[in-house]
Amino acid sequence: MAVLTIRNLPDVVRDRLRKRAAAAGSSMEAHARAILAKASLESVEKETGASLQQWVDTLYRGNKPDTAVKDLLASRRREVRSERRIKSKPSAPIKSRK
Fold first, then answer.
1. Alpha-carbon distance values, 65 to 50, 59, 80, 88 (Å)
2. What is the rounded distance in angstroms from the CA atom of residue 34 to the CA atom of residue 24?
3. Given Cys at both, which of 28, 43, 64, 76 links 60, Cβ 3.0 to 4.6 Å?
4. Are the beta carbons of 63 and 57 closer than 8 angstroms?
5. Mean pLDDT, consecutive 10-residue segments, the chain of 98 residues?
């Protein structure tokens, strides 16, 4: 069996893992091992547009607003325009005090 050391794990992650393990009635090590084993079985295939659409459909459970994508794109476009305006404004000259 291999040994894995995880450095710089935030305390809050360790504490949550400890609580989850206790709730499951297992040690923190056994619980982490089970999480890693399950994650290693997941597919590492590249996400496709269809799989992402399926994920969104599952997320909304058929209640997705008709304009969700259009609204998100419009919002992002407004943000980009705003960012461009801010970058293109010349900075005001600094006035010296006399």
1. 19, 12, 24, 35
2. 11
3. 64
4. no
5. 87 93 94 91 72 78 74 86 78 61
